[in-house]
Specification:
heterodimer, A: mainly alpha, two-stranded antiparallel sheet, B: two-stranded antiparallel ribbon, elongated
Amino acid sequence: MKKTNNIILETALKALLFFIVLYSVYIFTAGHYYPGGGFIGGLMTSGAIVLLLITYDIKTVQRILPINYRIITAIGLLFAIGTSAGSLFFNVPFLTHAFTHVELPVLGDLSLHTATLFDLGVYFVVVGVTMTIIQTIGEDE
Amino acid sequence: MSFLHLAILSPLIYSLFMIFFKKFHRIHTGWFILPLPILLFIYFLSFLPVTSNQKMVTETFNWIPSLGINFTAKADGLSLLFALLITGIGALVVFYSIYYLDRMKEKLPSFYVYLLLFMGAMLGVVLSDNLIVMYAFWELTSFSSFLLIGYWYGREQSRYGAQKSMLITVFGGLAMLGGIILLYIMTRTFSISEIAAESHSIWGNSLFIPALLCILLGAFTKSAQFPFYIWLPDAMEAPTPVSAYLHSATMVKAGIYLVARFTPVFGDSGVWFWLVSGIGLITLTWGSIFAAKQTDLKGILAFSTVSQLGLIMSLLGVGSAALHYADLDENIYIVAVSAAIFHLINHATFKGSLFMAVGIIDHETGTRDIRKLGGLMTFMPITFTVSIIGAFSMAGIPPFNGFLSKEMFFTGMVRVTEMDLFHLETWGILFPVIAWVASVFTFVYSMILIFKTFTGNVQLEKLDRQPHEAPLGMLIPPVILVSLVVIFGLFPNLLSDSLISPAMAEILPGLLGAGEEFTVHISSWHGFTIEVFMTLGVVILGIILYRTFPKWKTLYSKIPERMSLFRLYDQLVEGAQSGSYKLTKSFMTGSIHSYLVYIFAFFIFILTATLIGKGALKVDTGNVSAIGIYEWILALFVAAGAISILFVKSRMTSIILLGAVGYTVSLFYVLFRAPDLALTQLVIETISVALFLVCFYHLPKLRKYETRIRFKLTNALISIGVGAVVTVMALSAHSNKLFDSISKYYVENTYEKAAGKNMVNVILVDFRGFDTLFEITVLAIASLGIYGMIKLRGNRRKEG
């Protein structure tokens, strides 16, 4: 895929990638209070990886990120189902979330919510699914 | 479970042991089977003292008590008569088959398994009091006779005959099931005796006639009545013992049993009288006329069975009229019922022996064609004796039993003319006339059967084998049957008190007071009555017709082949096949386009019909918000993009236009304050446009030519229709808002209960996280599907 010396794109990527990933993490974590969440966060993370794919070729990207995305999908589904099923151990219906506020020394008042774990599952699934599709189609001859 | 139940089920249980009998190669399997029907026959004989006193034995075995379906076995006069026929003739047929079927060449275990299945099923039919149980056994007889007819399944004709009999009898059986259910609806019981006891309560019920027709349909198909008789001649492809057993003595009489059994229920109605006696007479005449045309010995016997069954049926129909005359002593129509039962017994004896004799001829000469046979009298004297007695009895010649029942038949038919109900004052005269004509033909084919086979010249060059007398074992069963023919002929009252009178008491229960019983007296001579002259006329005209048979035989060929019911059946079956093929072919075109047309056309139709039918059509603009300038602009963009897709030439352009529509939709989300949706829509639209482009890039070169979408009127009409219907439906739904939204709850509780401020996200992961759980599963499946389709392509190529 890579034919010419694409130095501008590569340099720009080095600066941009960090921001894109950061933004996607922000949008994921802020999801419970502001627009965003696991779905759009996952899509943006895969957007960052796609940008990597466009700049380099598939083999290079696989060397940088030696990840099997189908396993990421599976991990995401496990997170979602595990969070949902976990409530059964506490004698409450399936998919009952719990939350609490914790005072931490450095971070201050922090609200912890099991819905975030569920959303993390969504995040992983979306990353896994998008990357699986794009990679498989891209590799196809 | 009582001993009676065990007796009914014993053939079925016994057939399970066939695998053990298979081990004894040196002994014919039939010898192991033979004791069972003999034991059963003796067992059923032990009921005679009970039933001849108008008593019955009832045993109940709970099967599905909650539905009222219990295996109630009831042995009364009528059931016992049939049970004795089944087991008695069954024993003789098994004995005969031991010599008829070769131990080495035939698959004997399957033959005897089918035969035992059939025997058990027949016993179940006649001895069950519960209609559902009887129906189960009824279908088992159809099924086992299907197996028996197709016993030589290597032959095309056997398979054809088996299929035909299966289709016709199962058709009737299902109709009968419908009748049973209708009876249950009317009486809330499946028990025949309870239905018969309260039969007067269902007379006049609107379901009475449908139930009657359904039950009769079952009886007529099973008993090979007109026009359902067509399966019986084709069932002659079965081995001869099977024909002798099933198609003369037992299975075809199941319909007779059914009619006799239901006479107390339905017999009071004129429809019953006309249908049973009318169809019986038609079958009698039709069968006897066409029997004389046959050239195959078994064909003659098949048509004669059809004809004789019609005779019994018509007698039962005429006998049902006796229910209208309460007086026992003066009731002259009772004789029809006693004639029916007497002829039932007689027919089983002489027809069984005739089938066995034909089997012997087939076995010893290699053919059943009367054009090849002749002059066998000197070669097979015993078979000849058996046949001539059987055939003379069938023709109604004294001193055999057929003569007596034929006389009683004439008596019954003559007395119809004296009836004063169901318009019989005018039509009654037809009965004796038709009966007499049919008897003449019966005489003719009986003579053909005997004299074409046994007299005349021997045509040795046409026969496969040198004819000789059959082995002794093969001769014993027909000789026993024929001696019964003679004994019943000479001492007709032997069975009157023990069998005939109790059976009549079951068919006409209302006529008897307590302690009374029918007195049946059959005498061979009762003076110069009209019946005697009728018989004399039958014999004289029969002899004349037989003598001149070669001259008028050509009349048969004048009947066009197209008119025959056999041809009609074939056309029906073929027409059903080709018709349904054509029908399926006409709409299952294989093109997705036409299926979409059906789906959308139906969609338009059903929604329009509902909208109009329910009066839901309503446009209420009262609660609509004001439309701003931005909405107008965006709507214009979407509409322009969507419409221009239809008219662009290049696929690339349409992909880009589609993307434009998608991005405008996300702008709509922004406008309508849905930031999460806007974000997602933007990214998803980008990805799908990219995927479209990938697809476009991979299109084969041949298909890449650029062209506009061709205009088709149906497509345009349907798409406009769908759009209009959906718009109207959306407007109506908006105008018919009945309840407030439940969104208030979410607004109030998002922070209080779920600790979040983004309501959309809280609904997605918390309030309704279950949906999300499976949506991500859908995504995972989609990605794995794409991965599988692309990566596993190599394997498919190898296989293809």
